[in-house]
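User: Hey, quick favor. My workstation is busy. Could you predict this chain's structure for me?
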Amino acid sequence: MDALDRLSLFFQDFNLVTSQLRNLVPTLKDKLLDVLNQTAGSENPDEEVFAGLPTIFNAEPMFRHLDACVPRLAPDAQLDETPTRSFFTKLELIAVLSSIFNLHSTGKAAWLTVEYLAHISKRTIDETHALLNRLFIELIVLENDRPSTKEDVAVKVAQIQQSLVEKSELLSDYERLRDGVKLPTPHANLQCIVVDALRVYLNHYLDWHAIDARLDLVLTRHKGFLDSKCWAAVYCRGFVYWLRLRARCSSGVP
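Assistant: No problem, here it is.
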């Protein structure tokens, strides 16, 4: 089966789970109130109030098939038509879901696909966003998947930083877009903040003070958007704070 067909099937299942959850939610309040109003304790103290609620955890079998949803594109592949915004968004979702379950190879493949498709369709922000996320996954793999010596980390970080140097033309184009045009959507603003924050993290890895100061600059640069109450602004504030905490823990600063 073609990868894009699998992608469609995955989202059919994903939408089914979502609709089931929406149908279930109205009943949860009544069920919870019944439990809270009980005068006697439950016969089974470990009984789950929300037993059977579809969650990201008991939905894991569905996500095991994510790898089959990533298109396998040859370097010289030609597109019959320009990918749509919704297609890029779906690939981003595949990459994010893969990260949740530590499916790093699938996540990297998804971001690499976005990079390639964005490059040939001249979507500079999408390409840059995918590049930074893919390199960040490489760093996470180094940290989590095997014991690493300080020398191993230094070598890999240097390779990642060199990858950014080699993409200097792309990054310059990205900066001109970021600073020179009004970003059209909350999603585009989100992408730019993630790019700027991850560039700081990767370029100054384990240098807590440099990361801390430069993340403040990222927050200042995007203050107008971050002061809004839209979903993307809330996510971005949380992401930058999480990245700051991660940098502090990784560098051993008390």
